[in-house]
Amino acid sequence: DLYRKVFVFRKDPSDAYVVLRARLEQPLHNFTVCLRSYTDLSRPHSLFSYATKAQDNEILLFKPKPEEYRFYVGGKFVTFRVPEGGRDWEHVCASWESSTGIAEFWLNGKPWPRKGLQRGYTVGATAAILLGQEQDSFGGGFDFYNSFSGELTDVYMWDTGLSPDKMRAAFLSLRLPPALLAWKSLSYEVKGDVVVKPRLRE
Q1: How many angstroms separate the CA atoms of 51 and 130, rounded?
Q2: What is the pLDDT of residue 202?
Q3: Among 24, 81, 131, 151, which one is least packed by beta carbons within 10 Å?
């Protein structure tokens, strides 16, 4: 249980990452990923990387610059332009629905205009899920200049699209539905220089 704790990725650039283990019985037709990050990086960095053997960017939350997020599904991406962060925690949720190809992006509890992405696609279930690095091959192939440096917390993944109420609940750290990956019962393994510390401020 990592309640009120954070992963601190201490080095920049870094070879460190955290492996997450999720129980996925079948491929995904819908999903939502949420996390909270705190960094002063201005270079590109990966937040959440879900790779299958067939597709290294099966699901990817990537920040190429401070005022932009990229959300990948099945190797294709949409871009969400955001105000440059005030050097504060940023909470993001990204959800996707295969039947419509609708990609939703929420920043700090507010929805951005929805975009179209990979309608009819299916996300593979046998995955390597990493925080802090972007995979260019299954479980590896890192470019350290895309690594994350800073603090990560409140990582969740669901096999459904969350309702607007639940998206806001995730931002506010309220009670959430059972998840494939849940911060309060996370199965993880640290690889390299990542330290678990109490959160300094709410």
Answers
A1: 9
A2: 65
A3: 81
